[in-house]
Amino acid sequence: MTEHNVHHPRPLIRAERLRARCRQMGRAIARDYAGQDLLVVPLLGGAFCFVADLVREIPLPGLELHFASASSYGAGTISSGRVQLSALPDCAGRPVLVVDDILDTGRTLEAVCTALTSAGISSLRSCVLLDKPSRRIADISADYVGFTIPDRFVIGYGLDYDGRYRHLPDVCVID
Ligand code: 5GP
Ligand code: MG
Questions:
Q1: CA–CA distance from 150 to each of 1, 4, 11, 45, 118 (Å)?
Q2: How far does the centroid of ligand 2 lie from the alpha carbon of residue 149, in Å?
Q3: Atom 12 (ligand 1): residue with closest C-alpha?
Q4: 113: Cβ below 6 Å to ligand 1?
Q5: Which among 23, 34, 42, 166 could bridge 99 via Cys, Cβ 3.0 to 4.6 Å?
Q6: Which CATH number fits domain 16-152: 2.115.10.20, 3.40.50.720, 3.40.50.300, 3.40.50.2020?
Q7: Atom of ligand 1 nearest to the CA of 106
Q8: What does the pLDDT look like over 49-102, one tens digit per residue?
Q9: CA dihedral in degrees (39, 41, 47, 48; nearest 10)?
Q10: Residue 110 CB–ligand 1 contact under 6 Å
């Protein structure tokens, strides 16, 4: 039997603040893409909670979602540095918004943006819930950022530690 809560998650950003920020970001995105058929490309699984809350705050009638995945993490909190990408959507001529849970070294977003750019899209922006600028390696920033956080490993609200804790309603830190 597995031990429960061995890492003692402590809330860093609570659900109410996450929801309020999603509403603000959704409205900003809706304003910026008014009249356009926006293609939202969330990177699973980390972005699953964030994108679900975010798109419900973007009242654009032509919005479409295409789920993709990118993984750079090996076991635990150690990044392998290599990024594996799933098949990307047919997005030629479309404005695309990539959505991810967290911008850390930036390698993931850089790889995804490079792949999308070569797919002939009309415009590309990125949106992340969390930004850890102190860890950046790739020369990249996100166009929409929910919260800038210090260099702590976070879990919950989609973010995992070895597959666990994605279902926690708050973004938490573990010791
Ligand atoms: P990057 O390629 O920018 O280094 O990392 C981006 C990916 O690494 C994120 O999409 C996320 O899956 C994972 N990641 C980076 N920092 C954290 C963290 O603090 N907690 C968790 N759970 N995943 C992280
Ligand atoms: Mg991720």
A1: 34, 26, 14, 22, 33
A2: 16
A3: 46
A4: no
A5: 42
A6: 3.40.50.2020
A7: 3
A8: 999 999 999 999 999 999 999 876 554 555 555 677 787 778 889 999 999 999
A9: 70
A10: no
Sequence spans of domains, the chain: 16-152
Q: Collect residues with CB below 5 Å from ion ligand 2.
A: 46
Give the whole-angstrom CA distance, residue 146 versus residue 128: 6
Nearest CA to ligand 1 atom 9: 102
Q: How far is CA 137 from CA 104, 128, 175, in A?
A: 8, 17, 24
Query: So what's the pLDDT on residue 121?
Result: 92
Catalytic residue from among 101, 104, 131, 170 = 104
Nearest ligand to the CA atom of 103: 1
- Nearest atom (ligand 1) to Cα of 161: 22
Q: Residue 150: pLDDT band by 50, 70, 90 thresholds? A: very high
Tens of pLDDT, residue by residue over 11-55, are: 999 999 999 999 999 999 999 999 999 999 999 999 999 999 999
pLDDT given for residue 110 in this prediction = 93
